[in-house]
Structure formats: structure tokens, C-alpha cells
Amino acid sequence: MKMERLSQDKIRIFLTFDDLTERGIHKDDMWREIPKVHELFSEMMDQAYMELGFDATGPLAVEVLASPAQGMVVIVTRGRMNFSHADDAMDDEVEEVYELEVTMDETDQITYAFHDFEDLLRMAKVVNPLLIEGGTLYSYKNKWILVLDAVEMEDKRLQSIVAVLSEFGEAASVTQAVLEEYGKTVIESDAIKVLCSKF
Predict the structure, then answer these.
(1) What is the pLDDT of residues 38-97, one digit of tens each?
(2) Cα–Cα distance between 144 and 114 in angstroms, integer?
(3) Separation of alpha carbons 130 and 58, rounded Å
(4) Domain 109-198 = CATH 3.40.50.300
(5) Where in the chain is the domain with CATH 3.30.70.1950?
(6) Which residues make beta-bridge pairs with 103?
(7) 197, HSE (Cβ side, Cα atoms, 13 Å)
(8) Which residues are CB-neighbours of 27 under 8 A, at least 6 positions away?
(9) How far apart are CA 1 and CA 16, in angstroms?
(10) Phi and psi based region of residue 116 (left: phi greater than 0; alpha: psi -120 to 50; beta: remaining)
(11) Burial of residue 92, with CB atoms counted within 10 A of its CB: 0-12 exposed, 13-18 middle, 19 or more buried
(12) Is the pTM of this model over 0.70?
């Protein structure tokens, strides 16, 4: 489990499928109201408080984005709580409350970020024989972001590709819509093939 602070009131948590398996949770369980998922969420909030100083009391908006090979990205946004203090006796007894608004989404895209162009090229040479076609390359916030579509890929090939991507880059949770809006499209299609033929 990896986490980072995005702003004062927002954090991002990366959960691998191993993180879920260790806790006896299947990917589909994240969509259900079961005690194990509540325990996992409490554990995530405790860790967020210890590592990032993120206080999760009050209303929270939780977005869960599942990816076929990368695991899950959980984005937690803290809202502002407005208590009306009509009853002073209640002030002392305000307990910690998780008021959750959960949004679930699933994507068939694999998104990886590379800090160094050389790492991107080395990855492309290794992954090229595994990939038939596809891939879009963006430049965003001083990183190279590669987006691959996993819809047509068989499981074994997908796992191999993700293993190579993980060796040279890191999983990214930025969506393609954000990349198209705020990033710069470097190679629109067949990015891996283009990188291998041009460099």
C-alpha cells in the first residue's frame, strides 16, 4: 500500500492486488458492504494519519478506480463539516465520523509514468515483442506517461507487460481525459512501435 498527499484535503492510495489478497479481499468485494472492506478502509485512514498527517474525520468522498493489472487507486477527499452548535451538551460528545460518498469505476487502461526518457526507451525495447499494437505517449508534469489499452490482451501477456512497465516506471492514476486536457500528446498511436523505430 502506497500513499501520497495531493492537497491539504486530498490523498491518493495505491492498493495492489497483493494488498487485497493479504487481507482476504477479492477485487469484486470492493463494490460490496462487507466488514473486511470496512477494516481495510480504517487501516488505510490510520496509515494516512500516521504517514501524511491526514485527519479523516468528517465527510469523505472516496473514489475507487480499478485497473486490470495495476490494482486499485483510492482517492479520498475530505469535506468541511458544519456542525450547528445549538446544543452545547453535544459539543463534548462529537465522535469521529466517517460519512462516506463512494464512487466506483473500472478502467481497461494501463497507465505508467517515466521520469527519464532513457528508461522509457529501454522499456519500449523490452516490451515491443509482447505488444502487437497500441499505446499513446503523453508529456505531463515533467514526466512521460504511457497509456495502453488492455481490453484485447490475454491475461498472461498483460501480466508480462505490466511486469516490464513496473521495472522501468511507476503506476500512474492520472486519467486519459486529464492527459488530453492538460498534457501534451507526443505519440498518438502505436507509441511503443514508434519509439523503437525512431530511436
Answers:
(1) 888 888 998 999 999 998 887 888 888 877 666 788 888 887 554 444 444 334 333 444
(2) 5
(3) 47
(4) no
(5) 109-198
(6) 63
(7) 6
(8) 17, 20, 66, 72
(9) 7
(10) beta
(11) exposed
(12) no
